Structure prediction request, 474 residues.
Amino acid sequence: MTKRSKKTANENEQGQEKKELRWGYSTGACATALALSAWHYKQSQEEIHQVEVFFLDGRKIYLPLLVDDVASESSSSELKSSELKSLELKSSHELGDTLSVKAEKGVASQNPVVRIRKDGGDDPDCTHGAILFASLEEAKLSDAMPADYILSVGYDTLIVHAVSGIGLCTRLGLDCEQGHWAINQGPKQMLITNLKDAGMGLCSQEPKVWLFSLGVEDGVEIAKHTLNPHLGVEGGISILGTTGHVRPYSHDAYIETVRVCVRSNNLTGGEHMVFCTGGRTQKAARAFYPTLPDTAFVSIGDFIGESIKAARKYKMKRVTISCMGGKLCKYAAGFENTHAHNVAQDMELLREQILLALNIPHSKATSGAVLHENLDKKTDSTDEELKGCDTQALKTYDDLCAELQKAQSVREALLYIPPDIRLLVLSELAEKAFHFFHSLCDDVEFGILLCDFNGDCIFEKRSPARQTKEKGTA
Prediction:
């Protein structure tokens, strides 16, 4: 039983009820709620404080609007002119004047701006709390811009246009179309289904065209904390959602993003994928492989198993994992998800590997045994974290075990051994990690780019594809 499960058991014994995690709703669900609210106002001229949204799993849920902003005609017109007239669409592809919001377009008072706050439930990401805003007005098909989506809603046509804070898709292989706004298929289907159910497009005699203008407050800034810049989505966040729900702590969206990155690399001809565990390891990997394109690099967080499976699915020939010692130890232990709740088992594996590197097999170690003479060598004294770690004093097996037992992390444990033994331990852990990687995908050449805590490269180590070895061509 892990420490986490023990704690939960103790809490239950004390009569504390386990809190049920709260689901949230996606940016796609928010966009649909705004479209329904604006449509309702067009039909009735009435404010509403909440709107019932049909989610793509078949459930209907009421989503709250920011009621102070479903405003009166005068305040709506003022809000529209102050916020929408001056907005410009940002794109590195310089699509030109067609991507500017035309100030002369004008907004009638019957087209209020409606707002909603995104609620990520108990799976809050950087879009949790973001405010989305929108308006709906009658238009002509010629009003559509190149990046807009043209959707059929019954007999009517809906132009989906981004005014601010929503990114532009600049790369193949994503769930949105290249050269169009970063609005995925799920949200577009939710818009069609809900607006049709609400009465849009029912009249075949007088089909109409509607312009749905959607934006996200501070979307450009929020996007800097997402993977969008890496994915090729520029200028804002994406409007996402498979069903419209945000499952608490599922991390499904993150894993799907990794899959999309691998697929995008495949579609652009890439055969080498570099999985990075964080920002520093990605920076080191980019420096180590300067000729690889941006599509070859992706941050995978804890999801090594799903990432390798994606590499297998999209036929990568070579996969490099850029990581630090802590993740490496977890890979060596065979964990497909490297969340910290498995740390106890990781540390035991590390202790065993250190003892083997010191020529003291765990099964033969005896109390008071004298350690390898390399322990008399001083470790790198420039690392401030070595303060208090007197390697020369660790003369017996008991001493070392006591220090390793006190170590709270792989990084700390490695500081108790000299540099040459440290490298040997890490190299052996890499071999164990390769064995785990090949168990998930045996026809890929794997590599490990190991980095220190500062993000500097310690070594690169490779393991050929298993099938290649069997054919004798390695």
